[in-house]
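Hey all, sorry for the wall of text incoming. These are the two entities for the joint prediction.
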Amino acid sequence: MKLFDRIRKPTLLLDEVKALRNIHWMAEKVRQQGIRFRPHFKTHQSQEIGTWFHQDGVDAITVSSVDMADYFARAIPPGLTGEGQRWSDITIAFPFNWRQLRDIQRIAAGLAPAAARLGLVVESVETVNFLTRYLDSTGVDIWIKIDAGYHRTGMAWDNPAPVADVIEAIGSGGPLRLRGLLTHAGQTFTASSPADVCDKYQTSVGRMNYLRDALTQRGVTSLQVSVGDTPGCTLCADLGQVDEVRPGNFVLYDTMQLHLGVCSADQIAAALACPVVAKHPERNEVVIHGGAIHLSKDYFMQDGEKVYGHVAFATETGWGEPVAGAYVSALSQEHGVVRFTGAGFEQAALGDLLFILPAHSCLAVTAMKEYLTLTGKVISTMNSNP
Amino acid sequence: MKLFDRIRKPTLLLDEVKALRNIHWMAEKVRQQGIRFRPHFKTHQSQEIGTWFHQDGVDAITVSSVDMADYFARAIPPGLTGEGQRWSDITIAFPFNWRQLRDIQRIAAGLAPAAARLGLVVESVETVNFLTRYLDSTGVDIWIKIDAGYHRTGMAWDNPAPVADVIEAIGSGGPLRLRGLLTHAGQTFTASSPADVCDKYQTSVGRMNYLRDALTQRGVTSLQVSVGDTPGCTLCADLGQVDEVRPGNFVLYDTMQLHLGVCSADQIAAALACPVVAKHPERNEVVIHGGAIHLSKDYFMQDGEKVYGHVAFATETGWGEPVAGAYVSALSQEHGVVRFTGAGFEQAALGDLLFILPAHSCLAVTAMKEYLTLTGKVISTMNSNP
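and here's what came out:
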């Protein structure tokens, strides 16, 4: 592909056609089930890519930080697709950080007024009391973070009393508007099979509804349930009794998802183009410029080996299928080591580009800060230099 | 410490006193052995911190990428310590990437003329032939990358014939000026003890000299030997028969080095300040804002567990000793999980800051893009927004 001639160093490529297809597929699936689609934008991190969701009818989003909320609440700069568009219904799916109170107030106050909602996540009475005491009159939505089995954070799903205490502290009529219960079923990312993904997803949904029912019996009505993870939302035919889903990774997918059986290789919409800088025929390894500062050091285990990414060659229109038996076996700051256990070593010449399908696309996007599309356009993210 | 009141989100703190002490200690040690000190700047990545080395007599540096060479070859912007200073003796310790030929030419041509040297690393006849054919008349230094046991990249130390072929291809009188043999003894980073570090370092130095001697017997004279890694250069009393050393990490150190017995806790000069956002007394865990996008996902193994960093509390003047038994046990994009196996859990309150001593400081610096010093000054790096 002619575009590749101008690539001199590690460059994150985006296949827009695949990304648009991924977005459309998920938006359509969620729409058909009558559920609100609140995609997580922490994967693509780009205002411009955000407009592609908007064009597919999405009007509510999830972000992972206050900075990201700030970025997506701003109007799209002139000259970009969707110019002027901004998001006004944003949930920050991260436990509220007391030190960012003023940032939160500023963002909430700046959202477009019609139907504007800024959602915060809390998981303790102390945090609710802090917000009640210090938040000014600008209202915010409150979601209570529930641990439905992932054990990263959140309140236990099987213990309604402390959750009821948080709800009581939120009260009614004040600036805190209780929306419901929110969880991240991160355990699906370590499932053993596609069937196991769905089991874990449905178990999580079941637990959320158990808690909702228990709270309803205590007189708390109108609680919504928000769940969402790419493996579950991709693989499970029925998304269950939930009000909204928040998958994020599916816009790009990655080889962790491929390995888990969640996506196929031709759904992976991002690849890191890396120059070959050394060859080691004695061990069928190639050294590429492309390391931990480009891909991050996330990996998955395959046949007892750490895999930081799969490997493809250029085609006339982009990159090809992953080379069987080839993988990124080690990363240091700038170096990547690609091991070929089957064919492919001979084909990788010094000065050529290899295309690395990352293990974890969200972190590769953060590291790379911008995309180059297969049509030659640069797409910025929240981390791009202004 | 009053400075900490203004920290709202994950912030990379730099203890200048410790960093200056680390720089001075290493510069002095190397100077006393009559060896050239060519520190690796891939750890701190900052023009301003570079001037601290300059003040300690350093005039030659190592970088890990062409972009980094470009950054350090530029004059220090007005208003910063060392204003106007620029580096003119730079080795890019990464196998030469054919696609960056023009960038290399531009940097070489722009270096200050007096004693200016740009060093490139090669490891094949093909790459030398490529440079001979396409590089313009601006001269560059050539180092041949040798694999002295790390097996990441480089030519085998125990096979002089192919190295002699590369030297023959370099020739003499052209734009390529042969300097010598270069290795990175990365195997010291996975040593089992301080004594093992020194064994591995000395073995590597011995292999480099074996190769130099073998090439001398073939009539190749004046070859220099360049080695360097923080564990070896810190721990080994005698740095051996080498012409220059290139350690980098020692300016900040980190908990991987602490774990290896290379440094003490009070030599670690960087810590990530992270707000506490959730507490889980049932498992003595605290959730912080501080994840893979701030610390990277590098880790070391301790007692069978992955450790992404150690944990300290604030003191009047900075951060304290690492809390015994406390460590970062998991990282996702924005979340960090801190596990307390001894005391400390009670002391970490919602809204407080915990100070994470990273497992791998180089990657945390890349991720965070700038430092806040304990005296309240922001220090930029090559990745800072302009």
